[in-house]
Design a protein that fits this description.
DUF2255 family protein, UCP028498, about 130 residues, Pnp Oxidase, Chain A, alpha+beta
Length: about 130
């Protein structure tokens, strides 16, 4: 698997929001969706507030590929399963810390069992 550079990790991880466009079955990109992004170690994650039923999340499951932009960085990515279930607690913690100014009710939209089930690890394609 390809890794993010330290500059990409810092820039995307520090960005307030990320735009994500997933690939359709025919290879074209869907319209970008804006969302929060968090960095845990050397990995970047996004979550769907509507869980697996969310339209943009379902779109990522078609080809597991797309494009992101955040903080001036654009990258072609693979949408991967986060793997280790223990990482979800760390992701929750980063969401709570990074976005704390929005309050617990808003953060609760991405820190709950349904959103945890719709967590995507962003892996750069080189």
């Amino acid at each position: 698997m390809t890794a993010w550079t330290s500059d990409e990790l810092a820039t995307i991880g520090d960005a307030e929001e990320l735009d994500l466009a997933s690939r359709r079955a025919d290879g074209t990109l869907r319209r970008p969706v804006t969302m929060w992004v968090v960095r845990v170690g050397d990995d970047l994650y996004v979550r769907c507030m509507n869980g697996r039923a969310g339209a943009w999340y379902r779109g990522t499951q078609t080809r597991h590929q797309g494009r992101i932009t955040a903080g001036g960085v654009a990258a072609v990515v693979t949408f991967a399963d986060p793997g280790d279930t223990a990482v979800h607690d760390r992701i929750d913690e980063v969401y709570r810390t990074k976005y704390r100014r929005y309050g617990a009710n808003i953060i609760g939209g991405v820190v709950n069992p349904e959103s945890r089930a719709a967590t995507i690890k962003l892996v750069p394609e080189r």
